[in-house]
Here is the input.
Amino acid sequence: MTSIIQQKSIQHHPRLGIEVLQGCNLTCLTDIQIHELKTSLWEHGVIVVRQQHLSAQELEEFARQTFGNLMFGGPSKPLDPDISPDLQSQYVNILGNPKGLDQEPIEKYAWEWHHDKDRIPRIEGLEMNALYVVMLYGVEMPGEDIHGQPHTTEFLDMVEAYNNLDPQRQQQLEQMSMYHLPPIFSKSADVATDVPMKVHPIVSTHQVTGKKGLYLGSDTAIPVGMEDRPEEAKHFWKDLFQTVIDRTPVFSHVWYPGDIVFWDNSQVMHRGVPYDATQHQRIALRLGVVDNQSIQK
Ligand SMILES: [Fe+2]
Here is the structure.
């Protein structure tokens, strides 16, 4: 198994997945190191910081100081007495089976390709093009997935996906927008339910780098003009995504405990890979934050 992990971990992608701040502790970065981390994130879409030992509270504090106000979660979230307090914080979600091998993971929707931005479509005043960053911290990770391969999260570079399209197709998509729904409809208190679906161009321009990339959301997205034709909308999305996946190499991050992967949902899609939760424990802390410090207005 070790040799497979080593073999897969040395794969390289021209843009995604670089390791940054080697040997650093995220809880005590200098301003220069934080600048380096954010610059790398916008430039590379997916970055990795390894060998971290953070509590959920420390992860949350790091996110607040580095990116800005946290927007999801809140003080009403109760502590779960069956889970270590070190793994719990108001804005941090625990993924996997933190209560043991008999606990079925609930995040199966994450095994389909999507951009996160889960709740942005239903939050008033927040644009779809906001710089929504996800931090995923692997506290305990399975040794393998259900196929016996190293446990990974997979990523697609949507800048590369745009660049790989024919010029004609690029021009056609530049004229189009889609309505977006969250992959899961959430009724939690911090999400308004009466906000109309938000519209976003399919070809979107990154707010910091200015690069063009495709923004597909998830397969619930509906092209403007196809609101009354759900079958056609679904077909459009699937056909476009098939073109993307046929032409764009997938980057797989092979997980080691202590890794924190950051990704920029503006121009990166991702999916999780299923694992056998009766055989392996997976404890991952996830935190989503909208950066409000990087854009010079
Ligand atoms: Fe996700």
Notes: The chain is about 20% helix and 20% strand. Residues 110, 114, 116, 270 surround fe (ii) ion (CB under 6 Å). The chain has a mean pLDDT of 87.
